[in-house]
Specification:
The protein folds into 2 domains: 60 residues, Orthogonal Bundle (Arc Repressor Mutant, subunit A); 141 residues, Tetracycline Repressor, domain 2. The protein has 11 helices and no strands. Helix 6 packs antiparallel against helix 8 and helix 6 packs parallel to helix 9.
Protein backbone atom coordinates (compact mmCIF):
# COMPACT_ATOMS: atom_id res chain seq x y z
CA UNK A 1 0.00 0.00 0.00
CA UNK A 2 1.33 3.43 -0.95
CA UNK A 3 1.57 6.35 1.44
CA UNK A 4 -1.11 8.17 -0.55
CA UNK A 5 -3.50 5.27 0.02
CA UNK A 6 -2.81 5.32 3.74
CA UNK A 7 -3.53 9.00 4.13
CA UNK A 8 -6.44 9.25 1.75
CA UNK A 9 -10.03 9.54 2.95
CA UNK A 10 -13.19 10.43 1.07
CA UNK A 11 -12.81 14.13 1.71
CA UNK A 12 -9.46 14.92 3.34
CA UNK A 13 -6.06 13.64 4.35
CA UNK A 14 -5.71 12.40 7.90
CA UNK A 15 -2.87 11.53 10.18
CA UNK A 16 -2.36 7.73 10.22
CA UNK A 17 -2.52 7.63 14.02
CA UNK A 18 -5.80 9.52 13.94
CA UNK A 19 -7.13 7.06 11.36
CA UNK A 20 -6.15 4.11 13.57
CA UNK A 21 -7.76 5.72 16.61
CA UNK A 22 -10.96 6.33 14.64
CA UNK A 23 -11.02 2.72 13.43
CA UNK A 24 -10.62 1.46 17.00
CA UNK A 25 -13.39 3.75 18.23
CA UNK A 26 -15.87 2.56 15.60
CA UNK A 27 -14.73 -1.06 15.89
CA UNK A 28 -15.35 -0.94 19.64
CA UNK A 29 -18.99 -0.05 19.08
CA UNK A 30 -19.39 -2.55 16.25
CA UNK A 31 -17.94 -5.49 18.20
CA UNK A 32 -19.85 -4.51 21.34
CA UNK A 33 -23.11 -4.36 19.38
CA UNK A 34 -22.71 -7.35 17.07
CA UNK A 35 -20.10 -9.56 18.72
CA UNK A 36 -16.98 -10.94 17.09
CA UNK A 37 -18.80 -13.14 14.58
CA UNK A 38 -21.47 -10.59 13.69
CA UNK A 39 -19.28 -7.50 13.37
CA UNK A 40 -18.73 -6.40 9.77
CA UNK A 41 -15.34 -5.07 8.75
CA UNK A 42 -16.89 -3.41 5.70
CA UNK A 43 -19.18 -1.40 7.96
CA UNK A 44 -16.28 -0.31 10.18
CA UNK A 45 -14.36 0.83 7.09
CA UNK A 46 -17.41 2.68 5.77
CA UNK A 47 -18.07 4.52 9.03
CA UNK A 48 -14.43 5.60 9.30
CA UNK A 49 -14.21 6.64 5.64
CA UNK A 50 -11.38 4.21 5.03
CA UNK A 51 -11.07 1.05 2.97
CA UNK A 52 -11.11 -2.56 4.08
CA UNK A 53 -7.61 -2.84 2.63
CA UNK A 54 -6.37 0.05 4.77
CA UNK A 55 -7.98 -1.43 7.86
CA UNK A 56 -6.15 -4.71 7.29
CA UNK A 57 -2.94 -2.79 6.61
CA UNK A 58 -3.10 -1.31 10.11
CA UNK A 59 -4.48 -4.27 12.06
CA UNK A 60 -3.79 -7.40 10.01
CA UNK A 61 -7.20 -9.05 10.10
CA UNK A 62 -10.55 -8.97 11.87
CA UNK A 63 -9.40 -11.07 14.83
CA UNK A 64 -6.37 -8.89 15.52
CA UNK A 65 -8.54 -5.78 15.30
CA UNK A 66 -10.91 -7.34 17.83
CA UNK A 67 -8.03 -8.20 20.17
CA UNK A 68 -6.72 -4.65 19.91
CA UNK A 69 -10.19 -3.34 20.79
CA UNK A 70 -10.27 -5.55 23.90
CA UNK A 71 -6.78 -4.54 24.97
CA UNK A 72 -7.60 -0.85 24.52
CA UNK A 73 -10.77 -1.19 26.58
CA UNK A 74 -8.77 -2.62 29.49
CA UNK A 75 -5.94 -0.14 28.95
CA UNK A 76 -8.40 2.74 29.37
CA UNK A 77 -9.34 1.43 32.82
CA UNK A 78 -5.73 0.97 33.87
CA UNK A 79 -4.83 4.49 32.70
CA UNK A 80 -7.79 5.88 34.60
CA UNK A 81 -6.62 4.10 37.74
CA UNK A 82 -3.14 5.51 37.27
CA UNK A 83 -4.52 9.05 37.12
CA UNK A 84 -6.12 8.60 40.57
CA UNK A 85 -2.67 8.91 42.21
CA UNK A 86 -3.71 6.50 44.93
CA UNK A 87 -0.26 6.41 46.53
CA UNK A 88 -0.86 9.91 47.89
CA UNK A 89 -3.95 8.77 49.85
CA UNK A 90 -4.38 6.94 53.14
CA UNK A 91 -5.01 3.20 52.52
CA UNK A 92 -8.74 3.17 53.30
CA UNK A 93 -9.37 6.33 51.28
CA UNK A 94 -7.29 4.93 48.41
CA UNK A 95 -9.33 1.72 48.41
CA UNK A 96 -12.63 3.60 48.43
CA UNK A 97 -11.41 5.87 45.62
CA UNK A 98 -10.43 2.85 43.53
CA UNK A 99 -13.79 1.18 44.12
CA UNK A 100 -15.70 4.34 43.22
CA UNK A 101 -13.68 4.74 40.03
CA UNK A 102 -14.31 1.13 39.02
CA UNK A 103 -18.03 1.46 39.70
CA UNK A 104 -18.35 4.73 37.78
CA UNK A 105 -16.12 3.71 34.87
CA UNK A 106 -18.06 0.53 34.21
CA UNK A 107 -21.37 2.33 34.51
CA UNK A 108 -20.20 4.97 32.01
CA UNK A 109 -18.81 2.45 29.51
CA UNK A 110 -21.48 -0.08 28.52
CA UNK A 111 -19.43 -1.06 25.46
CA UNK A 112 -16.71 -2.38 27.77
CA UNK A 113 -19.23 -4.52 29.65
CA UNK A 114 -20.56 -5.97 26.40
CA UNK A 115 -17.07 -6.70 25.08
CA UNK A 116 -16.12 -8.58 28.24
CA UNK A 117 -19.36 -10.58 28.13
CA UNK A 118 -18.77 -11.44 24.47
CA UNK A 119 -15.20 -12.58 25.08
CA UNK A 120 -16.36 -14.73 27.99
CA UNK A 121 -18.85 -16.40 25.67
CA UNK A 122 -15.78 -17.28 23.58
CA UNK A 123 -14.13 -18.55 26.81
CA UNK A 124 -11.38 -15.95 26.50
CA UNK A 125 -9.79 -17.76 23.56
CA UNK A 126 -8.72 -14.52 21.86
CA UNK A 127 -6.77 -13.39 24.91
CA UNK A 128 -5.45 -16.51 26.64
CA UNK A 129 -2.20 -16.55 24.67
CA UNK A 130 -1.69 -12.80 24.67
CA UNK A 131 1.20 -11.68 26.87
CA UNK A 132 0.29 -8.09 26.06
CA UNK A 133 -3.09 -8.54 27.72
CA UNK A 134 -1.46 -9.69 30.95
CA UNK A 135 0.93 -6.74 30.81
CA UNK A 136 -1.95 -4.30 30.36
CA UNK A 137 -3.69 -5.62 33.47
CA UNK A 138 -0.72 -6.32 35.73
CA UNK A 139 -0.78 -2.75 37.16
CA UNK A 140 -4.27 -3.38 38.58
CA UNK A 141 -2.97 -6.05 40.96
CA UNK A 142 0.22 -4.13 41.69
CA UNK A 143 -1.77 -1.03 42.60
CA UNK A 144 -4.17 -2.94 44.84
CA UNK A 145 -1.29 -4.81 46.46
CA UNK A 146 0.37 -1.52 47.39
CA UNK A 147 -2.87 -0.21 48.92
CA UNK A 148 -3.45 -3.44 50.83
CA UNK A 149 0.10 -3.72 52.15
CA UNK A 150 0.04 -0.09 53.27
CA UNK A 151 -3.25 -0.76 55.06
CA UNK A 152 -1.86 -3.82 56.82
CA UNK A 153 1.23 -1.86 57.87
CA UNK A 154 -0.90 0.97 59.27
CA UNK A 155 -3.19 -1.44 61.12
CA UNK A 156 -6.24 -0.47 59.07
CA UNK A 157 -6.49 -3.78 57.15
CA UNK A 158 -6.26 -7.35 58.41
CA UNK A 159 -3.46 -9.53 57.12
CA UNK A 160 -3.76 -12.78 55.19
CA UNK A 161 -6.04 -11.65 52.35
CA UNK A 162 -5.44 -12.60 48.73
CA UNK A 163 -5.18 -9.46 46.60
CA UNK A 164 -6.36 -11.19 43.41
CA UNK A 165 -9.47 -12.30 45.30
CA UNK A 166 -9.95 -8.75 46.58
CA UNK A 167 -9.76 -7.49 42.99
CA UNK A 168 -12.31 -10.16 42.04
CA UNK A 169 -14.75 -8.95 44.71
CA UNK A 170 -14.48 -5.34 43.55
CA UNK A 171 -14.75 -6.21 39.86
CA UNK A 172 -17.63 -8.63 40.27
CA UNK A 173 -19.92 -6.23 42.11
CA UNK A 174 -19.18 -3.33 39.77
CA UNK A 175 -19.53 -5.55 36.70
CA UNK A 176 -22.79 -7.22 37.76
CA UNK A 177 -24.31 -3.78 38.27
CA UNK A 178 -24.10 -3.26 34.52
CA UNK A 179 -24.00 -6.71 32.92
CA UNK A 180 -27.27 -7.80 34.56
CA UNK A 181 -29.05 -4.46 34.55
CA UNK A 182 -31.71 -5.44 32.00
CA UNK A 183 -32.72 -8.73 33.62
CA UNK A 184 -32.45 -7.36 37.16
CA UNK A 185 -34.67 -4.42 36.21
CA UNK A 186 -37.24 -6.73 34.62
CA UNK A 187 -37.38 -8.83 37.77
CA UNK A 188 -37.11 -6.21 40.52
CA UNK A 189 -37.72 -2.78 39.02
CA UNK A 190 -35.46 0.08 37.95
CA UNK A 191 -35.18 2.20 41.11
CA UNK A 192 -31.74 0.86 41.97
CA UNK A 193 -30.51 2.06 38.57
CA UNK A 194 -31.67 5.65 39.01
CA UNK A 195 -28.94 8.22 39.66
CA UNK A 196 -29.81 8.26 43.35
CA UNK A 197 -29.95 4.48 43.48
CA UNK A 198 -26.56 4.15 41.82
CA UNK A 199 -24.94 6.67 44.16
CA UNK A 200 -26.31 4.76 47.12
CA UNK A 201 -25.18 1.42 45.71
CA UNK A 202 -21.68 2.71 44.99
CA UNK A 203 -21.34 3.88 48.59
CA UNK A 204 -22.59 0.51 49.84
CA UNK A 205 -20.07 -1.36 47.69
CA UNK A 206 -17.29 0.84 49.09
CA UNK A 207 -18.43 0.15 52.65
CA UNK A 208 -18.86 -3.58 52.08
CA UNK A 209 -15.32 -4.00 50.72
CA UNK A 210 -13.80 -1.75 53.38
CA UNK A 211 -15.49 -3.77 56.14
CA UNK A 212 -14.23 -6.97 54.55
CA UNK A 213 -10.60 -5.83 54.67
CA UNK A 214 -10.76 -3.96 57.97
CA UNK A 215 -8.65 -5.17 60.88
Amino acid sequence: MTQSEISKSSSKKRNPEAVKADILRVATEEFATSGFAGARVNLIAEKTETSKRMLYYYFGDKERLYIQVLENAYRDIRLGEQELRLASLEPKEALKTLIAFTFDHQRANPAFIKLVMIENIHEGRHLLAKDAFEQVNAPAIQRLTEIYQAGVASGDFRSGLNVVELHWFISSMCFFNNSNRSTFSAAFGTEIFSDAGQERLRTEVEELICRYVSA
